[in-house]
Design a protein that fits this description.
Helix 1 crosses helix 3. The chain is globular and about 70 Å long. The strands form four sheets. It has a seven-stranded mixed β-sheet with strand order 1-4-5-7-8-11-12. A seven-stranded antiparallel β-sheet has the order 2-3-6-9-10-13-14, with no helix packed on it. It is about 30% helix and about 30% strand. It is an alpha+beta fold and about 325 residues long. It folds into three domains: about 110 residues, no CATH class; about 130 residues, Jelly Rolls (Sandwich), CATH 2.60.120.1440; about 70 residues, Phage tail protein beta-alpha-beta fold (3-Layer(bab) Sandwich). The longest helix has 23 residues.
């Protein structure tokens, strides 16, 4: 049984490495990329394996830049052919080179130094790191954890997460969009990626935030009870009450807490958690204000509450989406 599991993991690793090389090839087509997304979406194991191999491939590129005369290792001496017919293809040779990158310079480069964690739509996940720091991942989110140079580094790739940094002599650094944040050992904070930057909320402790903006390079110190939004124009911070923090983090209990948000905002929030989407077919109802506590994965209950409280009707379309429109007054 263990041998079968090991063989399966190795097959996934080799497939991930092939995808890394294929996607890096200028001739990679849209069809190739669509096939990759389908493969990656099959399981978290695929996603994590791809992230590890992508890190190794990036290191190989940096190694080539540092040692331009070193040349490429001989593929046949380093790795078996990943698939019949691909042994002498550019992708297979690239895969071999990526594997070689993990063995050069006295073994300093390793495939295992970064670990990816991800959630699917509607899923939440708690990750406890080796230093006892905790990461709570919200729906459709992903982080990459890396320990290097005496630093504990976590990169938020997509979605939203709550970080609880454990006391440790090593700095705890979070990267999201272009910003870099360093948390104190007792910090509990939430970070959510947005279209232009990210939103940060500090529940406990303190954070040094460098927004990484082109126009402004000033750092901002965020303490407990402070929220900030940062993007291309820098960071804007404001104090917020604990009740607002609790509402923003209600997803940790599997809920969405509304307190005066518009129907448009509420629908956008529900759509993050569910494959069955809600659409506003009539713009005139977008501004309706809502309040209530709803389960993230029960859009039907939310829709029923809306149609009972307002002159709104709901209809399911052929694509499975729920469309909301104004109900005629008889």
């Amino acid at each position: 049984m263990e041998r079968e599991a090991g063989s399966r993991r190795e097959a996934v690793r080799q497939a991930a490495a092939l995808w890394v090389v294929r996607l890096d090839d200028p001739s990679c087509s849209d069809a190739d990329r669509a096939a990759f997304e389908a493969w990656r979406g099959e399981s978290f194991e695929h996603e994590a394996a791809y992230e590890r191999e992508a890190v190794a491939w990036g290191r190989l590129e940096r190694l080539r830049a540092l040692r331009p005369g070193a040349g490429k290792p001989e593929p046949d001496l380093l790795i078996a052919a990943p698939a019949r017919g691909l042994r002498h293809s550019p992708w297979a040779r690239g895969l071999a080179a990526a594997a070689a990158a993990a063995m050069v310079v006295g073994g300093v480069l390793s495939l295992g130094t970064s670990t990816a964690y991800a959630t699917a739509i509607g899923e939440r996940r708690v990750v406890v790191l080796s230093d006892n720091s905790r990461i709570e991942l919200n729906t459709d989110s992903k982080v990459v954890v890396r320990y290097h140079g005496g630093v504990r580094e976590v990169r938020l790739v997509r979605g939203e997460a709550v970080f609880q940094a454990a006391n440790d002599k090593r700095p705890f650094v979070i990267k999201a969009a272009k910003a870099v944040m360093q948390a104190d050992g007792s910090t509990e904070m939430a970070v959510r990626l947005r279209a232009d930057g990210a939103a940060v909320t500090v529940k406990r402790g303190a954070v040094e935030l460098d927004p990484g903006a082109a126009e402004r390079k000033d750092e901002v110190r965020l303490t407990a009870g402070v929220a900030a939004v940062y993007g291309s124009a820098g960071a804007r911070a404001r104090p917020i009450p604990e009740s607002e923090i609790d509402r923003a983090l209600a997803w940790r209990q599997g809920a969405i807490a509304l307190n005066g948000q518009s129907l448009e905002q509420a629908v956008a929030e529900f759509n993050r958690y569910n494959r069955q989407q809600i659409r506003i077919a009539d713009p005139s109802i977008s501004g309706l204000r809502l309040a209530g506590y709803f389960q993230t994965t029960e859009p039907t209950s939310f829709v029923n509450a809306v149609t009972n409280a307002f002159p709104v009707r709901a209809a399911e379309g052929a694509d499975g989406a729920i469309r909301l429109s104004r109900r005629p007054i008889s």
